[in-house]
Specification:
This protein has 120 residues and is mainly α. It contains five helices and two strands. A two-stranded antiparallel ribbon has the order 1-2. The protein starts with a strand and ends with a helix.
């Protein structure tokens, strides 16, 4: 479980899958969803979120599943705009780190392959 401290909000606990390699690489998926479901499974939740939360998700660099945001928000307490925004911020930071970690590993692997080819 990933834990973040936000100003004015107690520690945010996230589903650990947000930081996984599987989440860092979309592999043809359009949305970052912790259950890896198709949009038809989770899209219904979008309409029940408060408009500022929907706008915040729409403006995110990542296409984050609204149902997963709602689940992580509710697991951290009574939903409020402040809590929704803190959870979204925490998810974005986690995804950002996962992408950087994966890209570093990928580029190191690529450099190693190129070096091995040159040695042949």
């Amino acid at each position: 479980m990933t834990i973040f401290s936000e100003a004015g909000v107690s520690s945010i606990k996230l589903n650990p899958i947000w930081g996984s390699r599987h989440m860092a690489v979309l592999d043809g998926r359009q949305v970052r969803c912790t259950t890896f479901d198709e949009g038809s499974v989770w899209i219904h939740k979008l309409d029940s979120l408060p408009p500022p939360v929907r706008r915040r998700l729409a403006n995110s660099r990542f296409n984050i599943c609204p149902t997963c945001v709602d689940i992580d928000t509710r697991s951290n307490g009574t939903p409020s705009l402040k809590l929704y925004f803190a959870v979204i911020d925490a998810i974005e930071r986690t995804l950002d780190r996962a992408e950087r970690r994966h890209n570093r590993a990928w580029s190191a692997s690529l450099v190693g392959k190129i070096a091995r080819k040159r040695l042949r």
